[in-house]
């Protein structure tokens, strides 16, 4: 894979988990990374450990003003250009359908799908038209196959696939690619299904490779999609999930 030297990347949800690993990998490949996270301290702490002058900013992707400010911070570093936009920020608020109230449904959709929409839309004017512009979003096995107890999350993640494919079609004329990654990794988000004995047994039985990846193991796919080697790939969903969705 060719490197990312000279590229500017904005990564949301980069304060922990998959986002942190992706920000680290992009920086190691040579990119200058702006790490945006609701937890601004975490973003700044991770940024301080990365090469190439990475910067951490506080940004709740549910807030249009926060997203605009994070995008402007990245654009300022890149003298107006942001090459790589990676939308990873997300949370989960599980509830069985009968208990899934309006607010719990809407808030998860707003963070995942709304956050992806507003980050991409806000960065659009800064993406270059020379074949280096990249949009990378994060979906999930839940968005591809559905899940029990998280219809809000699954709906948002399925929506992200439709949004990403639409970006791919609409922005192809500008040579900007848009792809989604469906990861599975040992992070805070998956702590319960990894540590609760009964849930862990059920979950591992659904993963052909029989284990959760470390976040660093899924980060390479994001870096590949950001690279020149993926310039002719757009509108795709790449699952890095141990074979969960086949
Ligand atoms: N871990 C997995 O197995 C898995 C599987 C499928 C999809 N995903 C997706 O990968 C992404 C990262 O998940 P993770 O497992 O690393 O979770 P995580 O909880 O470890 O990290 C999520 C990060 O996003 C930040 N965040 C949460 N809400 C935010 C908001 N409104 N604005 C900005 N930042 C916010 C958190 O502060 C945290 O730093 C999510 O979109 C998640 O849905 C993860």
Automatic annotation (TrEMBL):
Pfam families: adh_short_C2 (PF13561)
Transmembrane segments: none
Signal peptide per UniProt: none
Annotated Ketoreductase domain residues: 7-187
Record-linked InterPro entries: KR_dom (IPR057326), NAD(P)-bd_dom_sf (IPR036291), SDR (IPR050259), SDR_fam (IPR002347)
Family under the similarity heading: Belongs to the short-chain dehydrogenases/reductases (SDR) family.
Protein name (database record): SDR family oxidoreductase
Native source species: Paraconexibacter antarcticus
